[in-house]
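We treat protein structure as text, and this decision shapes the records that our systems exchange. Below, we set out a record of this kind in full and without editing:

***
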Amino acid sequence: MKVFTIVILLLISFVGNCQYNSVPMKVGDLFGISDSLGNIKIKPKFDVVDVITYEDLYFVGYDLKTNKSSLIYNDKEVLVNTDYRSFIIENELILATKYNILKISNYHSEKNFEEINHLYDQNGKQIIIEDCKFIAIVENADDTKISNEVLLYYQTKIDNKFSLVLYNKKKSKIVKTYIDKSSFFEVNYNGDLDYRNRSHSFIFRDKKGLGKKITLVKESKGITQFTEEDYSINNRAKNEYENPYGDYDIAVPEFETKPKVDTKSDSVISSWRKVKIKRDFYYKSKEKEEVSIRTEKINTDWAYIIKKKRKVGLKLTQKNKLILPIKYDEILISEFVGHSNCYLLKRKNKYGASISGFGNNIIIEPIFKNLFIVHKVHFFGNQSALLKLFNNDGTFYAYAKSDGTIFIKN
């Protein structure tokens, strides 16, 4: 289960201009952490370092020989040489997840592995001692303040029982248990029916097996409302957990009239090479990253590559407008996180990029000998991106800044 936080459903998309000053620095064949000027903060000892900017900046270093991982947060190693495969930091708490492989297969199935979750504070102290199938935080998306008290619910692995507790970060302990080891559990966000209702409801069985329903409002200042009542769940299954989120359809825009490619005046190229990171199942052991490149058709109802005098640009079909000038040797489409597009621009055997969707396009001039993927656009401040560089054979090489700085130290 991948959901860590259950929130009031207020979806807000924005591009942050946070500026970070720590990066993975390559020294020899190993990676450590340094500032952007190259001053080492964490000595190089990892084969791979992942950069994560989920809610705050943190790093995960991997030793591929021992299959151990270390979490680096606030420029210190908080969890060292662990068996965890992934970490999520949210509300200053650390969700650490490891996977036990039960069956080796080329096909994904939840029967192939078991997931074990633990929760820690930002100093590495374990909060919930038992192995958990999942752990989730209940918060409101429109609360901008970090709360001192955190409402958690979780399911323990050994007995499949559910609990709901209140954790106090200043006291570093659980201060209130609302549900303790229930065989039945259901959570509902009541704002789905009325957006003015900020409460969550939790339905469970008490120690006597009787159905109960707790309704509460959790805000940054704490629990502001609380009620408990009897609730009939006699016909409901044991060990049932219902996800309060459903599936959502993605809206695809339709053109009023089908646009036409201007084949009379344009030399049209309707395919391009796509660059993306190779990925295995998330529960398998960490490996060094590689990129794959394959040729794909372009949806010419949307755009196409135009070629003149051995140079290429990109033209929008509907608007009959160039969005990339005709001055590149090749335009590739790249994997990119978010609602934007990232085009790699090749000129004189060097690579740059154009990232759309941020008002004006962000341009990285072709100055890199290595093929790259844009990892985070505003990592170093406004329009200054963190890049992942790759060797000619597709293997990961090093991190870089979009101004041409490559984070390698002799």
Observations:
- The two ends are 42 Å apart (CA to CA).
- Confidence is low (pLDDT under 50) at residues 1-17, 243-253.
